[in-house]
From TrEMBL, chain A:
<dbReference type="GO" id="GO:0005524">
    <property type="term" value="F:ATP binding"/>
</dbReference>
<feature type="domain" description="ABC transporter">
    <location>
        <begin position="17"/>
        <end position="251"/>
    </location>
</feature>
<dbReference type="InterPro" id="IPR003439">
    <property type="entry name" value="ABC_transporter-like_ATP-bd"/>
</dbReference>
<keyword id="KW-0547">Nucleotide-binding</keyword>
<comment type="similarity">
    <text>Belongs to the ABC transporter superfamily.</text>
</comment>
<keyword id="KW-0067">ATP-binding</keyword>
<dbReference type="InterPro" id="IPR027417">
    <property type="entry name" value="P-loop_NTPase"/>
</dbReference>
<dbReference type="InterPro" id="IPR050086">
    <property type="entry name" value="MetN_ABC_transporter-like"/>
</dbReference>
<keyword id="KW-0813">Transport</keyword>
Automatic annotation (TrEMBL), chain B:
<dbReference type="InterPro" id="IPR000515">
    <property type="entry name" value="MetI-like"/>
</dbReference>
<keyword id="KW-0812">Transmembrane</keyword>
<feature type="transmembrane region" description="Helical">
    <location>
        <begin position="41"/>
        <end position="65"/>
    </location>
</feature>
<dbReference type="Pfam" id="PF00528">
    <property type="entry name" value="BPD_transp_1"/>
</dbReference>
<dbReference type="GO" id="GO:0043190">
    <property type="term" value="C:ATP-binding cassette (ABC) transporter complex"/>
</dbReference>
<feature type="transmembrane region" description="Helical">
    <location>
        <begin position="299"/>
        <end position="322"/>
    </location>
</feature>
<feature type="transmembrane region" description="Helical">
    <location>
        <begin position="396"/>
        <end position="415"/>
    </location>
</feature>
<feature type="transmembrane region" description="Helical">
    <location>
        <begin position="224"/>
        <end position="247"/>
    </location>
</feature>
<dbReference type="InterPro" id="IPR043429">
    <property type="entry name" value="ArtM/GltK/GlnP/TcyL/YhdX-like"/>
</dbReference>
């Protein structure tokens, strides 16, 4: 473990997200079953698993894009309930990056980044723009600030999406397959951005198939199948010495080619 | 082929090829004509035939326009001057110009008032239509409806002023309660506005002569002015109402949803002309017996409801066309419902809906002529009634109807051209 990057990144024992006995159904279909998960501040967790295993649904429950029917989710000490004010508070503290970027096509890159700070955080426009430029520089595309999303490549759009989330100064970042819709050349630029974010100690939950990324930055890998957490471990152990048969099968399929 | 290794299968390009202009036959007017007018013998015959018909129509219509008489005071006089030659009697337009524009009972000494209202309309509408116009002009846009009401209907300025005061009170009440929730702000705003307007109604009633100009009752409105009033008011009211109905129809609250669905489906299932008859005769039964609701107001309510239902469906199409990711991205940033609708969803949905909304707006504007059926004298009503029935101008069909067609075409074509311009302005997706 000592030679990997995540060894230097501190994990505190402060709890960031606490999920207890959480269940979710789509109609009669039981998507998530008895999920128990505690995420500590500064942790980088990669969630892997075959498609349809409920990994995206799990992280979408954390900021209430999906409703859970049983159990509890506590984010930053706030219990997620159906109260809309409560949900909006949690959402403004939790950044989310989507597979298909979901930038707002009618706004410029800069406006995409300043919109939520101005309207949700009530930050003055000038200040919000300075923050936005700071984060656009960090994802290495400040020169695109006045273009529209449609003029950017996929990788650039995803980096803007990351910057847009960061502008809200979130304490937790959720990534829902951030590189799955990208060409191979662009995957690296997005992963590099995520690595640098991890190095700064951001609490991250990341659904991804990028196992290289998992090895490099994750301090915990969670494997899900059929709506359940099947196995979780430190990356080294997870990849070299998987215990569950489903995990072994999954790893042999995605690492085998 | 010197820079390729032609003998072997392996190939390495050593110099990149420069860009070259296309051959002369592939560019310019000649190419355009060959491709569009003379592509094959069938295409060429059609082109020549079309040119022939265009020629016949132009040469046939030209003397009618060129020999047009503009200065006589009756059809008989005009025919006398023409003396059997082909020519139009445009003098009906010049002689009845004021009637065509303002109707036949609007007092002539007050013609300047609707004219001024029309000029001010252009000023008021500019910042709405052109985003580049100075934003301060929106303040004038806000007070314009009250000013225009006063100019056209007259009476004391206090009446529209009290209504304006009601709206201002509603706005402040909304701002006050908006922090708690958007819906609460809306309810507080509406209540405050109604209370102030109702209470403020005492003021103009008690002093009807303060800042008063000659009052003109609704039944004296007429001509193209009536079409413009109905068209402008109904379009500007039915767009926000249509947006609310479309959002209401998508609401997760069942009562709101069903109210909107029933309203839309009912109104769409009924012909506009029957709604106008309802406005004319039946609607009075729904108001308190002493409330004398103006006929023009009743017609405005009906046309607005009718086109709002159509606009709601057009916007619903726009909302459905947005990817779910846009809603989710707005939610995940912590925007509340009102913010995400106003900043993210509606700007995009309305942009998609522009062609459909314009379709409804143009249709609405033309449908304002239907009020001639319930004996209101709009442009069509004027032509059909007082002008064609007069002894001087009985029988001048082409000139009068041609004029009506021309006027409506100008307005509707402008709306259509504007919407195309707006679509280009709003295109940011760079497809």
């Amino acid at each position: 473990m000592a030679d990997t990057a995540h060894a230097q990144m501190a994990v505190s024992d402060e709890v960031a997200i606490q999920i207890e006995n959480m269940n979710k159904w789509y109609g009669t279909f039981h998507v998530l079953r008895d999920i128990d998960l505690t995420v500590y501040r500064g942790e980088r967790i990669v969630i892997a698993g075959p498609s349809g295993s409920g990994k995206s649904t799990l992280i979408r429950c954390i900021n209430a894009l999906e409703e859970h029917q049983k159990g509890s989710i506590t984010v930053d000490g706030t219990l997620l309930s159906s109260d809309i004010k409560n949900i909006d508070t949690i959402r403004s503290e939790v950044g989310m990056v989507f597979q298909h970027f979901n930038l707002f096509p009618h706004l410029t890159i800069l406006e995409n980044c300043t919109l939520a700070p101005i309207w949700v955080r009530k930050i003055p426009k000038r200040e919000a723009e300075e923050t936005a430029m700071h984060f656009l520089e960090k994802v290495k595309i400040p020169e695109q600030a006045n273009k529209y999303p449609g003029q950017l490549s996929g990788g650039q759009q995803q980096r803007v999406a990351i910057a847009r989330s960061l502008c809200m100064r979130p304490r937790i970042m959720l990534f829902d397959e951030p590189t799955s819709a990208l060409d191979p050349e662009m995957i690296k630029e997005v992963l590099d951005t995520m690595v640098s974010l991890a190095e700064e100690g951001m609490t991250m939950l990341c659904v991804t198939h990028e196992m290289g990324f998992a090895r490099q930055v994750a301090n915990r890998v969670i494997f899900m199948d059929a709506g359940q957490i099947v196995e979780q471990n430190e990356p080294e152990e997870f990849f070299n010495n998987p215990q569950n048969d489903r995990t072994k099968l999954f790893l042999s399929q995605i690492l085998g080619h | 082929m010197s820079d390729t290794h032609a003998q072997t299968v392996a190939f390495v390009r050593e110099t990149m090829l420069p860009e070259q202009p296309p051959p002369a036959s592939e560019a310019g007017v000649i190419k355009w004509m060959r491709e569009n007018l003379f592509k094959g013998w069938f295409n060429s015959i059609l082109t020549i035939l079309s040119l022939y018909f265009i020629f016949k129509i132009v040469t046939g219509a030209y003397p009618w326009f060129a020999n047009g008489i503009w200065t006589t005071s009756s059809l008989a006089e005009c025919r006398e001057i023409l003396d059997g030659a082909t020519g139009a009697c445009f003098s009906v337009l010049t002689e009845r110009w004021n009637q065509l524009l303002f109707g036949f009972t609007y007092p002539p000494e007050a013609y300047w008032r609707p004219t001024l209202a029309f000029v001010l309309l252009i000023v008021a509408i500019a910042p709405v239509l052109y985003p580049k116009a100075p934003r301060q002009m929106l303040f004038f846009t806000g007070i314009y409806p009250f000013l225009a009401y006063w100019l056209i209907w007259g009476g004391t300025l206090l009446t529209p002023l009290m209504v304006l005061l009601g709206f201002v009170a509603g706005y402040f009440a909304f701002k006050q309660f908006e922090r708690q929730s958007f819906a609460m702000g809306l309810v507080a705003g509406v209540i405050a506005a109604i209370v102030v307007i109702w209470a403020g109604g005492v003021v103009p009633a008690s002093m009807p002569d303060v800042l008063a100009i000659q009052a003109i009752p609704s039944r004296d409105l007429g001509g193209f002015m009536l079409n413009m009033i109905l068209g402008t008011v109904c379009v500007s009211l039915s767009l926000p109402l249509g947006i609310l109905l479309a959002l209401g129809r998508q609401s997760s609250m069942p009562i709101i949803k069903w109210i909107c669905v029933i309203f839309i489906e009912f109104i769409r299932g009924v012909p506009l002309i029957t709604l106008l008859f309802v406005a004319n005769v039946v609607l009075a039964y729904f108001f308190p017996p002493d409330a004398n609701i103006d006929l023009v107001l009743r017609v405005i309510i009906m046309i607005t409801m009718f086109s709002a239902a159509y606009i709601a469906e057009v916007i619903r199409g726009g909302l459905a066309a947005l990817p779910r990711g846009q809603y989710e991205a707005a939610d995940s940033l912590g925007l509340d419902y009102a913010q995400s609708m106003r900043l993210i969803i509606l700007p995009q949905a309305l942009k998609i809906s522009i062609p459909g909304i314009v379709n409804v707006a143009v249709g609405l504007f033309k449908d304002t002529t239907l009020v001639s059926v319930i004996s209101m004298f709009d442009l069509v009503g004027m032509i059909r009634g007082p002008i064609l029935a007069s002894t001087e101008w009985n029988g001048v069909y082409w000139e009068l109807w041609g004029f009506a067609v021309f006027v409506f075409f100008i307005v509707c074509f402008s709306i259509s051209k504007y919407s195309q311009w707006l679509e280009r302005q709003l295109a940011t997706d760079h497809r």
